[in-house]
Design a protein that fits this description.
Layout: H1 2-24, H2 83-86, E1 91-98, H3 107-114, E2 122-126, E3 139-141, H4 147-162, E4 166-173, E5 177-178, H5 180-188, E6 197-199, E7 201-203, E8 212-214, E9 220-223, H6 224-230, H7 234-240, H8 246-258, E10 265-266, E11 269-270, E12 273-275, H9 288-291, E13 295-297, H10 302-335, E14 367-369, E15 373-374, E16 384-385, H11 388-409, E17 413-428, E18 432-445, E19 450-462, E20 480-486, H12 491-506, E21 512-520, H13 522-526, H14 535-547, E22 555-559, H15 565-574, E23 581-584, H16 593-602, E24 608-617, H17 620-623, E25 640-642, E26 650-653, H18 654-668, H19 680-687, E27 691-702, H20 715-727, H21 732-747
Parallel strand pairs: 1-2, 1-4, 2-3, 12-13, 20-21, 20-23, 21-22, 24-27
Antiparallel strand pairs: 4-9, 5-13, 6-9, 7-8, 10-11, 14-17, 15-16, 17-18, 18-19, 23-26, 24-25
Helix pairs in contact: 3-10, 4-8, 12-14, 18-19
Length: 748
């Protein structure tokens, strides 16, 4: 009894004390009435209706309590596809370039080649478009070349299609050169909560001395809040304001209806411009105003645009190199204060230290090369000719080494290359590509004396900034249509394929269907009424359909001597909808849910096709030689290899195949014999602009089987099939052991 009374009394006193503390404190809950100007809990001051009080910029997050009206019916909340949309994030900057039909193929192309790839999003706006739009440019034509109409339609288009996606809108002409990196840096220092009209301020002709408009030739920046306020007045501005210049018309519209004038300086940021005179030499221009300009106008032709871009790119590059040197000096000065001291300083300064292996299995090997040959070849051969990207890479490294040596020792010595004695390179995933070169050099002194010497240099090509490539959104709910071509030689493996398909897809109710493609030889096709070579397979299919009542497995019969993969796919493609996701399988494939999901995720309509590299197990007779095979789940990828020569498996959408196939048909006309030398991979590679994603697929394992190579196919396809069979026998060590045992048996 005393214990119960004590607990009751203690709880009562605790509740009373909590209520007193809450009622007597100065801090109030959000939404509770309080004295004017009171602020509690770190939240920003708000008006009675919950909106921020004007003039305050407090972007600290606050919790908005969920409230549901009990009188209204419950409605399921639909989540957005991306978290960025749900949180209300906007992209930073959109750029609009005003061009015309006369300058679309000249100045607009120059803008596209110089600065377009530096901006996140850029569109070209014109009145009338030419018959052919230059490659790589997104053009919006309004149908009228009048300048005021073009400006009105452009502002209306930006608000309607892009107003809810971006915070800043930069509008420029095609005769303007803008430093893209400087413009992007400018918007990062401006507040998105203000109405901004920033550019080169100009006076109106015969107008108010206080009002200014932004000169369109030098570009101008408009904030999203200003665009939203301006849009309701655009029609009134078009009807009431008369002007010849579109930039002056827009400036007058903003001033008359919003009371905002153009400024060249805002929040400590300056919009520097430079007016380019005739016959100006950008390389010789040393004015500080020119060097700091964000926009240069007017640019008369494409050549001047490229010269300006080269000049300003050199300025930015010099600034970057100087900043790197300053950072390296700071690192050197601070290294002495670290526990490791100066001995902990890595080379190059500021780059990650080399990878330190913890065992001999983690050692990164070096690849040896000369100027003509590479001694670590992709195909496994000991020596191959240096060509392509590898040759360009090594040539660039040698030139860079000579440039660094001359910059360090000139004017005392000047080096020239005689020969590359030895070259080594390796890829370190923590820092980049490392090189070690033994160079035979000729050193020439200032007096003209020369001497030949050998010198070892080390270089590093560091990993650059990692970029996230945007990819379209895909799901794992897409239905996969499996297509299995079968010949007479494949009959022994069909039963295992159907069993794995039933166990991994039908039993698990995976969203996958199967279509069989029976390939009859002309001789077998004539005797199909007496003896059907595929009768056993059709019986197995019937048993599956009885076991799974809701499943139907259709088959298609084809008569041909040369089973071309493209011709077979043409037949299947016509019998399925355009949005079908195909998985072109082989009879040795063991289907599983893990791979089907990766097939769905890696195949994107109108964007990417997926060609997996399956894992091929070796011949157990050569690998184990009578011993018991490894049954451990951790060793299931041990005794085999990824077959790079096989392109039999593929995941792609029917619409993408039909598009590429149409281009192929226009190219080959009526020469159907060309199709016998092609695979589906070749169709997508040469006749589609899609990404071809080819990667090793550990979930696609095939048991060993000797493939039958059809000699009627093209020489390349037949040779690839033979190589696949030979490399699939066993590894080199297993083959060596088999030969060794055979020689020992013969000697005895």
């Amino acid at each position: 009894l005393p214990l119960v009374l004590g607990l009751s009394l203690g709880c009562s006193l605790s509740l009373l004390r909590a209520s007193w503390s809450q009622g007597g404190g100065e801090e109030q809950c959000p939404g509770a009435p309080g004295p004017p100007g009171a602020r509690g809990g770190g939240a920003r001051p708000e008006a009675a209706e919950g909106r921020p009080v004007p003039g305050h910029e407090d972007f600290r997050p606050r919790i908005v309590p969920y409230y549901r009206d009990p009188n209204k019916p419950y409605k399921k909340v639909l989540r957005t596809r991306y978290i960025q949309t749900e949180l209300g994030f906007h992209e930073r900057l959109f750029v609009a370039v005003l061009t015309s039909k006369a300058t679309l193929n000249t100045l607009a192309v120059a803008v596209n080649k110089t600065v377009a790839h530096h901006f996140p999003r850029l569109l070209y706006f014109t009145g009338l478009r030419s018959a052919k739009v230059p490659h790589g440019m997104v053009l919006v034509a309004h149908g009228d070349e009048r300048p005021i109409w073009l400006m009105y339609e452009t502002m209306h288009y930006i608000h309607q299609h892009l107003g809810s996606d971006y915070d800043w809108f930069y509008i420029m002409q095609d005769d303007t050169y803008a430093q893209a990196e400087q413009v992007k840096a400018l918007v990062t220092h401006l507040s998105i909560n203000q109405d901004v009209y920033l550019g080169r301020a100009e006076e109106f002709i015969g107008g108010d001395e206080q009002a200014r408009y932004c000169h369109g030739g030098f570009g101008y920046l408009i904030s999203r809040s200003l665009l939203l306020k301006l849009h309701p007045h655009l029609d009134s501005c078009r009807n009431e304001i008369l002007s010849v210049r579109p930039d002056e018309w827009l400036g007058r519209c903003i001033i008359d209806f919003l009371g905002i004038t153009c400024v060249s300086q805002l929040q400590g940021q300056h919009y520097h411009t430079y007016e380019l005179a005739k016959n100006t030499e950008p390389e010789k221009e040393e004015e500080e105003e020119f060097q700091a300009a964000l926009a240069v106008h007017p640019v008369s032709d494409m050549t001047m645009m490229y010269r300006l871009h080269k000049h300003f790119s050199r300025i930015q590059l010099d600034r970057a190199y100087q900043e790197i040197q300053d950072l390296q000096m700071q690192i050197r000065n601070l290294t002495s204060l670290t526990p490791a001291g100066e001995g902990g300083l890595t080379w190059p300064v500021g780059i990650n230290a080399p990878f330190l292996p913890k065992s001999r299995f983690e050692v990164i090997s070096w690849d040896y090369f000369t100027e003509q040959h590479l001694f670590s070849c992709p195909d496994g051969s000991p020596k191959c000719e240096l060509s392509g990207a590898s040759k360009a890479d090594i040539s660039e490294i040698i030139e860079s080494a000579l440039e660094q040596l001359n910059s360090r020792y000139q004017p005392l010595l000047r080096f020239s290359k005689r020969q590359l004695l030895n070259g080594y390179r390796r890829f370190d995933p923590t820092r980049g590509m490392e090189y070690t070169l033994d160079l035979l050099l000729e050193a020439v002194t200032q007096k003209g004396h020369s001497h030949v010497l050998a010198k070892r240099v080390s270089l590093v090509r560091p990993l650059s900034k990692v970029e996230i490539i945007p990819m379209p959104y895909v799901t794992e709910a897409t239905r996969v249509q499996l297509v299995l071509p079968l010949t007479v030689q494949d009959l022994d493996f069909v039963a295992n394929f159907l069993d794995m398909f039933a166990m991994n897809t039908l039993d698990t109710h995976d969203n996958a269907l199967l279509t069989l493609l029976f390939i009859y030889h002309p001789y077998d096709a004539q005797r199909v009424s007496q003896v059907d070579v595929f009768a056993g397979v059709k019986a197995m299919v019937g048993e599956l359909e009885k076991r799974y009542a809701e499943v139907k497995i259709p088959w298609i019969s084809v008569k041909t001597e040369v089973p071309s993969q493209v011709k077979l796919m043409d037949i299947v493609s016509k019998k399925h909808p355009v949005d079908t996701l195909f998985f072109l399988a082989s009879v040795w494939t063991e289907i599983n849910m893990e791979f089907l999901n990766r097939c769905r995720m890696n195949t994107i309509s109108n964007w990417q096709v997926f060609f997996p590299v399956h894992f091929q197990e070796f011949n157990p007779a050569l690998v184990y030689r009578g011993e018991q095979t490894a049954s451990s789940s951790t060793d299931f990828l041990r005794d085999g290899h990824f077959d790079r020569h096989s392109f039999a498996e593929a995941c792609f959408y029917n619409s993408d195949y039909m598009t590429a196939r149409t281009k192929l048909a226009a190219d080959i006309l009526d020469r159907d014999e060309v199709l016998e030398s092609m695979e589906v991979f070749d169709v997508f590679l040469h006749y589609s602009g899609l990404h071809l994603f080819r990667a090793v697929e550990p979930g696609l394992v095939q048991k060993y089987a000797l493939r039958s190579c059809n000699p009627r196919l093209s020489e390349e396809l037949y040779h690839r099939c033979v190589l696949s069979n030979l490399e699939g026998l066993a590894s080199r060590s297993h083959l060596a052991m088999a030969l060794f045992e055979q020689e020992q048996a013969n000697s005895t």
